[in-house]
Amino acid sequence: MTALLDIAELAKRFEVGHKRLLHAVDEVSFTIGRGETVGLVGESGCGKSTLVRLINRLLDPTSGSIRLAGTELADMRARAFAGNPNRARIQMVFQDAGDSLNPRYTAADAIADPIRRLKKMSGAALKSRIEALADMTGLPRELLTRFPHQLSGGQKARVGIARAIAVEPELLILDEPTAALDVSVQVVILKLLQQLKHELGMSYLFVSHDLNVVRLLCDRVLVMYLGKIVEAGPAAELFADPKHPYTRALISAIPQADPDKRVGRLRLSGEPRSPIDPDPTVCRFYGRCPKGEPRCSAEMPVLRTVGPARQAACHFA
Amino acid sequence: MTAVPALAVEDLSVEFRTRSGIVKVLDHVGFSVDKGETVALVGESGSGKSVTAFAVMGILDPAGKVTSGRALFGGTDLLALSERDLAEQRGRELSMIFQNPRTALNPIRKVGQQIADVLVRHGGATRPDAPRAAVEMLKRVRIPDPERRAEAYPFELSGGMCQRIMIAIALACRPALLIADEPTTGLDVTTQAVIMDLIGELAHESGMATIFITHDLALAAEYCDRIVVMHAGHVVEAAPARELFAHPRHPYSAKLLAATPGETASLAELASIPGGLPDLRRPDLPACRYSGRCERRIDDCARPLPHRVLDERHVVSCWNPL
């Protein structure tokens, strides 16, 4: 698999008052292959959303590189990126389709908007493209004239997906695309996403905190904690045998219907450390980690190879 | 089980008046919760889970009207109480945790004061004593550094921390019944686990009856003794959590389970539930509101819904159960 997206030492630091810096994304490196689905998991505040907005070029990085099929995107200003031809290559499906659709746009308007702007299509060609997208995403054509409030949650999700794939992106970023949906609808949307990926040959970056969904959809998983990637690996292996204690805690927190499988679970106590001016010599997980040995507060563990295709940032992995 | 349940909801029907007609949101809903027991109400959006809770708490939207039924709580029918008497019960005997802690808390009042308010209003605490009692409550919900946190405003705290404040407020007067409406939606899985453990422990300590509203079946199975499955305003099945998971009898319960991503299932194995909820404004609603989506429908399904008691803990409303 050749890398479609190559992120290297990407960082975003926000200034918060008097020369204090919030390290939202801290020197993160990873790749996404063509046709690959990579899951990104971690608690709120861990930097997932900032990372996504950097890749999506809605936010300018402090340093580092974002290469899409060899093209460096990190140098382009986020402000100017909306009109850049590369804009069409990375698209996003937002968390709550209800909140991310313009309430005064019909479904057809919402889908047409990016095509008009980025593909300069209009008239009959535009209309037939919109209809084709509705068919692809399973949105009945007669619903195209409806406004968001006249659509169900599942239908709005379809509009959000149709809009995102309208300009034929190579990378689709999905931010909790099914969090607002009932399980019965969630299944349908997940299957639709799986099918579209195969048909259109896209790569997915799938952000979610529903680990059961991540497990179903993703080839590889990145675990983020306080701005750092603390573990990366193939989904099945990572879930079966997590190397980083934080990943263990995440997996332990998945609700478990079978009481026999609840033994030996790890519960986290306390709150995460502050992301403002973090001590570069202390492991970010120190204080919440059940291990927490002296070395952890004297030397920050780096993300290192701990097995074939597996990486973890822990001295004890 | 001969013990008197902490709460028995019987025959509860609720209608909402809307511009486009009367919506029959709840139709003869019945279930009970024993002392010290945690019961989950599960179902898709629109199934009537929250409306059931709101009706019991007497906080229905003014457009909603209870048209039949009782909610027996220690011998008194909550639905028959005056607003004034009910207000006395709420906060002391009955408590509720809402879905979004940040919007449910008062944004311009320190969290310690908000807990103290409840203790003064319902818990018989005096104003001078209340702050110390509030800090004690913060300790009980395991908030680190409680003295300092009591002085914080909600916006200064994380979502998980705010939910703990809500729990502290809800449990301040040691209620006999707690209703938790999706208390962990929007929280991280790790925080969710801690919050659910906490509610469970506190319920266990004080023998509190808990109604837990969720659409997450796995979460319900892990933390609840019994599960009540709702669909379009009907209770379709009620059973001990393990039994429901192992042997669902109502076709809808089985479909819900089959749609829930679990440990082994691949995406291909997950099945969606065909169709949607019926329009609850229709005057000719079928007796079984699931029959339009059901693959096991038979002629009997047009008859009034049965209430089949499989054993004293397992009840199903279906003419052709699995």
Description:
The complex is a heterodimer of chains A (about 325) and B (about 325). Chain A is of the alpha/beta class. Chain A is built from ten helices and twelve strands. Chain A has an eight-stranded mixed β-sheet with strand order 6-7-8-3-9-10-12-11, with helices on both faces. A four-stranded antiparallel β-sheet of chain A has the order 2-1-4-5, covered by helices on one side. In chain A, α4 (about 105-120) packs parallel to α6 (about 155-165), α5 (about 125-135) packs across α6 and α6 (about 155-165) packs parallel to α7. The radius of gyration of chain A is 21 Å and the shape is globular. Chain A starts with a strand and ends in a 5-residue tail after the last strand. Chain B is an alpha/beta fold and about 325 residues long. Chain B is about 30% helix and about 25% strand. Chain B contains eleven helices and twelve strands. In chain B, the strands form two sheets. In chain B, strands 6-7-8-3-9-10-12-11 form an eight-stranded mixed β-sheet, sandwiched between helices. In chain B, strands 2-1-4-5 form a four-stranded antiparallel β-sheet, covered by helices on one side. In chain B, β1 and β2 (about 20-35) form a beta hairpin. In chain B, α4 (about 110-120) packs across α5 (about 130-140), α5 packs across α7 and α7 runs parallel beside α8. The mean pLDDT of chain B is about 90. Classes of the chains: A alpha/beta (about 325), B alpha/beta (about 325). The interface of A and B includes residues 44, 254, 259 and 269 of A.
